[in-house]
Amino acid sequence: MAWLDTILQGLLLGGLYALFATGLSLIFGVMRIVNLAHGDLSILAAFLAVVAVEALGWNPFLVLILVVPLMAAVGYALQMLVLNRLLGRGILPPILVTFGLSIIIQNALLETFSADSRRLNPGGIETASLSLGSGLAIGWFPFITLVVAVLILVGLQLVISRMSVGRAFRATSDDQETAELMGIDNRQLYGAAMALSLGIVAVAGVFLGIRTTFTFSSGPDRLLFAFEAVIIGGMGSLWGTLVGGALLGIAQTVGAKLSPGWGILTGHLVFLAVLLLRPHGLFARARRVA
Amino acid sequence: MEPAAVRIERTTPASRIGAVGAVLVLIVLLSLPAWGGPSTMRILVEFIALLVLAQMWNLLAGYAGLVSIGQQAYVGLGGYALIVLADDLGVNPFLAVPLAGLAAAAFALPTAAIVFRFHGGYFAVGTWAVAEVYRLLIANTPALGRGSGRTLKAVFPLARESRELTTYFLALAIGVAALGAVYAFLRSRYGLGLMAIRDSEPASETLGVDVFRTKLAVYVAVAFGTGLTGGLIYLNLLRISPDAGFSISWTAYTIFIVVIGGLGSLEGPLIGTALFFLVREFLSDYGAWYMILLGTLAVGVMLAYPQGLWGMLAERWDLRFFPVGRRVSVERVPSPCPSPQGREGGA
Amino acid sequence: MTLLSVRGLSAFYGSFQALFDVSLEAGEGETVAVIGANGAGKTTVLRTIAGVLPAPASAVRFDGAPVGGRSAHELVDRGVVLVPEGRRIFPSLSVEENLQVGAYRARSGRWTLARVYELFPVLGARRRQPGTNLSGGEQQMLAIGRGLMSNPRLLLVDEISLGLAPLVVQDLYRVVRTIAGEGTTTLVVDQNVSQILPLAQRVYCLRKGTVSLEGRPAELTRARIAAAYFGV
What is the distance between the alpha carbons of residues C97 and C100, in angstroms, rounded to a whole number? Predict the structure, then answer.
């Protein structure tokens, strides 16, 4: 029974990882860029939430109303002012520039907020638990995180499959030049994609900050886990990232239970195993957008 | 028209100056222990270490097109290999440095088996994921000191002066050897193949360049160089921990150095390393600001001057101190007879 | 009234010159044929007009305004739409979605999804299938339909019959006739001369990047066209 509990915890953790993974996967699907600052941007969102909570006294959940649009705007600006200038220059510049941004953000956070670890306090729900019977209980907050992750995935799926901008994402991902012949301005579209990605990652960052403590250097690990969730689930599959996140989460919780220092390492090892045995992930599809 | 006489040249006036300059610098550096203090020697060891790391990363990313952000794996592996070889296996610590490089190269093979499944940005993250795996594995190994790391004890019997002196000369030897090896490699036909791969993989495949083998060879060779440097670094610092040895900062420093100095040239990393040390010296009182500045510089350079500082200078004044390319010089022999055809019409 | 005017256009791919001082015109409502052998520069001309390739501003005038060098998506807004060589159907989109993405700029006009399905019933029958599941001829219809969805004032069709069977090409030209009949100005590029000439009010023949012949098809003999096409 203790194992079932562990697995459940891992599953719920997967919800959070899926949130991180979705933003990363969307950008790669549409623009073929890996945003190495992805994790650091989520931590930036978490720190922004800290500032907002301290300034306004609001509940962290409420602060999302401010942080998510703000980060979406940051994403749009980042794409339009910086990343769009790198279009057509190959794979090297976006990697180097986003890596540089990652380092800049981390050090800027260090200078601004010091190395102290922070946490967002929503006033009790993070410790409340829901009993499932026969001695099993899950935390309310991890459950909410999973629900939010699923809702966001559903929303994103709807945007991609039903809305004009979603069709534009898929068309641009298929054939950027011909998409432009349809009247799609790829610069604006990429801006929209980045805004969407950072909006989602802001939710992920705030939820992370509620769930656990974080510091200026917590970003890179988020990127790693997001990446691993995408690879395990299979590139190009939106729902695959949910499964990938869940498997990663389970690997980590089971590993941690076996030996405290081995949680994250077990996740890495499962990732490597999937990579070696099923290089295209578990649900890879031809369709490439998220 | 008479056929033109064509010559292929490698050396230019600038490159001759460069060769002379390099020899002069080397003489100065060799004599340094006589007039410089131990702290100067230590800084130079650090300088050389970063320079070699940068040259290695430049070879990997700027020439082979493999953008790795996981090279810190080999710095850490090299450092730990040094300590294991010197302390646990009784190897002479100075000899252990090149052996540490070999150890790192050995780890590069299984690493490549994993990361070569990726390309582009995902390759970059993959290399970093593997570096993290190494870090965590070591951090969980009691024999390697777990999270607190280990100290190099094998050098304790030596007098501090002679240890520092030997470390310094070892560093010089490594610096010269590494630069020389990279230079020689790029001028060879393997180097030419590498530059062809950088310019166009499919095209170079059709010309008979074995792309996969070449990339793998470069990756392993660079791992050797990086591991060797890791050994040198920790021979200098004497103490290693997983967080320090496998810190992403190693990669951050080298990337900034190479990007700012100039990707894809030998001179670029030299300028970049010098700039890095200057910035660090001037901003040492301001904490993380020097990293913010370097990062911003790197991003700015990437946006505005992708060839870096050296690229800018080289283009302006047509300078090549370490020429790896070939120049075609054409001499037109004047023809005594006027050309019989008129201007070619159409296409 | 002249809708499209190209004057003195020279184009380069790197250091290779593909077009030498090309000039052509299309009047409003006209169907213009651009013929020539492989590599003559026909696709280059079309791509330049559509904004895919750079050009001096005054080299291309649309509706009186200089539009040379404007980006492709801007030109779609103005009503210049290119149906590209090789169809270039989006594999991730269904037939219907391919058509819908053609209407991204939401220009008003007579062409709607319903009308396109009227014109191409086979597309309606396979609307939910991936666009690339269609045969070559059907994909060309889809590509043309996609172009129509943006309600163009000038429709550019590049290599309309490339790789397609003669019967299919006949169908396609019937469609072009219908579209032209509605008053859309059309510029069609083809290597297949016999099918396109009866439809066009004006023909330009390109050879090695220059205009080797221009005029009204009725006034040109087979011999003259062949000479201009092949350069004999």
Answer: 5
